[in-house]
Specification:
This protein is an alpha/beta fold. The protein has helices at residues 22-31, 50-53, 99-108, 134-137, 140-152, and strands at residues 7-11, 40-43, 60-66, 76-81, 115-121. It has a single domain (7-152), classed as HybD-like (Rossmann fold), CATH 3.40.50.1450. It contains five helices and five strands. A five-stranded mixed sheet has the order 2-1-3-5-4, with helices on one face. The longest helix has 13 residues, at 140-152.
Amino acid sequence: MDSQAGIAVLGIGNPLCRDDGIGIRIIREMQGSAKYPGVEIIDGGSAPDLFSLLAENVRKLIIVDALRGGGQPGAIYRLALAEGNIAAATPASLHGMGILDSLKLMGQLGRYLPAVIIIGIEPADVSHGLRLSPAIEALVPDLIKAVEEELCSQH
C-alpha cells in the first residue's frame, strides 16, 4: 500500500469479553504487518482518550469495534460520522468518555475533527472469555480487508 500519512486506525474493545475484543484483535494483526506505512495503528483499549491518542495531523480516523446493529452475528458495518451528525450537547464528564463525547469535545474546543469511519462487526458472544467466538474469528480476514479498503478510499 502507498504511504497513508494522516490516517489512523483505532481498535477499541474489551478483549476479556470475547467478541467485544475484535477491535483490539484487528489492531494487533495490523501492527505486525509492514503493509501500512505512514498509518497510525492504535490500540485504544476499552475507553480510548482521543486527545492523547490522536496526532493533530490525523485527517481520517478509522475505528474498528464490535457493533450491535441488529444484524446477524458477523455482519460487517461501515458508518461514516460527520461533524453535523454528532450531537452538539456538551459532555457532562471527562471521566469514562466515549468516542462520540471525545469528538464533541474536540470540536467544541476548536480542534480539527478528522473524517471518522466506523468499521464494526455484529458480535456473536460477548460473555467473559479471552477468545473470539468461532464465527467472528473466521471473519478476521474479512474485517481487515474492510479496513484496508477504507485505507485506500479517498472518502
